Recover the amino acids of this structure.
């Protein structure tokens, strides 16, 4: 791996940042590779909502302390399964540094909701370690390290608030940030399994055509609203009446408040539904008596810097 030469970096043993969530304002799932993974074309946008992540080096042993809900993938023990932990292991394996670390995460991003919570933590750990490292990796090397951890991690390991991504999320083109806007998140007390969602999508043929993206058209919210699309919606919403209802209700709200540049979609493969709308709803009709949680945040025009201290 290559190191970044001559960067002016404050020295210290503790790095902290906010692992901001993401939404996809455009998400097109392309062909399934022989590996079972799908090629993607997507437009990522960071949110202000994020988890607090602190990484300490120069400690004895390796630890992860996570306050809040976490749903790790199946197979390993609870700590080793955590994506933030796996990011630190990947960094140490690739660079030979550090031996030990202490990671603390305070969760705020709803878990299993398509907002990239676990991936944002992993991206934040990579950024923190790279700020503390005696020989930091280049931005490209950090993205290469992030790619095997999941399709959202490369973007969430960058300092870009907005980017187009292709491949499995590792080919990135940073875009100028759009003005911040209010976004309402509808959070459900259930998640949607990402592998299941890809499977349901593979069953839909032919898929509805999505717009062709042009970078110029993505420089305004009007342009984004015109192309906003998520392939997962057609596969996921019909299986969850609650998601379908939330989408309908938020879209009807945007029409009522005459917001022509509103964007209402499923977040990633779900279950969260979001609406970027200048006057978002303060309440929603409960579906089948299910308690919905509305969270209000903003789209981000900057990514919170990593702060280093002793
Ligand atoms: O990227 P992430 O680890 O969240 O992906 C979870 C699962 O979703 C993968 O194991 C795979 O089944 C599916 N997936 C896919 N194509 C992608 C990304 C994920 O089929 N590009």
């Amino acid at each position: 791996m290559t190191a970044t030469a001559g960067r002016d970096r404050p020295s210290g043993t503790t790095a902290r940042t906010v692992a901001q969530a993401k939404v996809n304002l455009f998400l097109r799932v392309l062909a399934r590779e022989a590996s079972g993974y799908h090629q993607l074309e997507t437009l990522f946008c960071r949110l202000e909502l994020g988890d607090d992540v602190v990484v300490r080096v120069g400690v004895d042993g390796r630890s992860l302390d996570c306050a809040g809900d976490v749903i790790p993938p199946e197979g390993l023990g609870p700590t080793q399964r955590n994506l933030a932990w796996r990011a630190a292991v990947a960094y140490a394996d690739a660079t030979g540094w550090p031996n030990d670390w202490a990671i603390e995460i305070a969760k705020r991003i709803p878990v299993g909701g398509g907002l990239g919570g676990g991936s944002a933590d992993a991206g934040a750990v990579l950024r923190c370690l790279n700020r503390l490292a005696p020989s930091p990796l280049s931005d490209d090397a950090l993205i290469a390290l992030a790619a095997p951890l999941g399709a959202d991690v490369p973007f969430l390991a960058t300092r870009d608030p907005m980017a187009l991504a292709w491949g499995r999320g590792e080919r990135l083109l940073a875009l100028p940030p759009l003005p911040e806007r209010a976004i309402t998140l509808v959070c459900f007390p259930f998640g949607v399994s990402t592998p299941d969602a890809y499977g349901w999508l593979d069953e839909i043929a032919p898929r509805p055509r999505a717009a062709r993206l042009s970078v110029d058209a993505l420089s305004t919210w009007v342009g984004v609203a015109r192309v906003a699309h998520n392939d997962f919606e057609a596969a996921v919403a019909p299986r969850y009446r609650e998601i379908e209802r939330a989408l309908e209700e938020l879209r009807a709200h945007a029409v009522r408040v005459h917001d022509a540049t509103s964007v209402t979609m499923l977040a990633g493969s779900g279950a969260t539904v979001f609406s970027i709308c200048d006057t978002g709803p303060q309440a929603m009709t409960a579906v089948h008596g299910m308690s919905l949680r509305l969270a209000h945040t903003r789209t981000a025009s900057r990514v919170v810097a990593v702060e280093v201290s002793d």
Q: What stands out?
A: The radius of gyration is 19 Å.
